[in-house]
Design brief:
Layout lengths: L1 E5 L8 H14 L4 E5 L5 H5 L11 H6 L4 H4 L1 E2 L5 E4 L8 H5 L8 H7 L8 E5 L6 H9 L2 E7 L4 H18 L5 E10 L4 H14 L3 E7 L2 H5 L7 H4 L4 H16 L3 H4 L1
Parallel strand pairs: 1-5, 1-6, 2-4, 2-5, 6-7, 7-8
Antiparallel strand pairs: 3-4
Helix pairs in contact: 1-12, 6-7
Length: 260
């Protein structure tokens, strides 16, 4: 099973929107997808229509060892897309994990026991921070997908994340690498968006996806209905962009037979 962490320590960059809609688009393309909500806010779970009262077991129990992947996972209304939800209990996990053995490897240990062949790919939606939860994701996943908002401070935040990746590579996971950077919240009416996009491409080159996610009202509305944008309005510019991103993602991935 391919594992990709979706992370950026800066909030409000479209990270969870990207995780939900990329997972949905991959599932629509025939991939069996597992989405892990590792953010205590649980926005990915809410955005997929899973209410708090339905989250009996979550990533909190997964990290503490009180539940397995198979026990924690739940189906979503999207065919071929399963979810391990998050609850507010996860907000205390960073403190509780400090005294647990191999605290940076808890997610990796849990995923190692996942049923073989059940999923082709696992996306991990990380919290907007570089704490122990995000480090667990970066240890468990050899690939990192970075949503990057087209605004002034984008490159500064990216440099901090890249420094963290280097530290994780040196101490915990020598195999981790940047799978790709996706530019989000692009506003064609704003010259700054174009300038930031050009600067990011100049620095990171082919790591940056060709697909750019536009600012789109339907992307913002969809979570309040408990639906991915691709189901809420599959013809809106945001949905079309995420389908294009999924096609680019698949082109960068090994074949599903190899992934399983």
């Amino acid at each position: 099973m391919i594992r990709i962490a979706v992370a950026n320590q800066k909030g409000g960059v479209g990270k969870t929107t990207t995780a939900i809609n990329l997972a949905t688009a991959l599932a629509a393309s025939g991939w069996k997808v597992l989405l892990i909500d590792l953010d205590p806010q649980g926005n990915a779970s809410t955005g997929l229509g899973v209410p708090s009262e339905a989250r009996k077991l979550s990533t909190y129990e997964l990290l503490t060892g009180d539940a397995t992947v198979e026990e924690s996972v739940m189906a979503t209304r999207v065919p071929r897309l399963d979810l391990i939800p998050a609850t507010v209990d996860l907000s205390g996990a960073e403190i509780e994990l400090v005294d647990i053995d191999r605290r940076t490897e808890r997610l990796d240990i849990a995923l190692a026991d996942a049923p073989q062949g059940r999923w082709d790919i696992c996306l991990i939606d990380c919290p907007p921070s570089l704490g122990l939860l995000t480090v667990n994701a970066l240890v468990a996943a050899p690939s990192l997908l970075v949503p990057l908002q087209c605004e002034f401070f984008a490159l500064e935040g990216l440099s901090q994340l890249l420094n963290t990746v280097e530290r994780v590579r040196a101490r915990f996971n020598p195999d981790i690498s940047i799978f790709g950077v996706v530019l989000t919240m692009y506003d064609r009416r704003n010259n700054l968006s174009g300038q930031v996009a050009d600067d990011v491409r100049a620095v990171l080159g082919k790591l940056v996806f060709d697909t750019v996610i536009p600012r789109n009202v339907r992307l913002s509305e969809a979570p309040s209905h408990g639906l991915p944008a691709l189901i809420y309005d599959m013809n809106c510019p945001g949905s079309e962009a995420y389908m294009a991103l999924a096609r680019e993602t698949i082109a960068r991935l090994p074949a599903k037979a190899e992934a399983a």
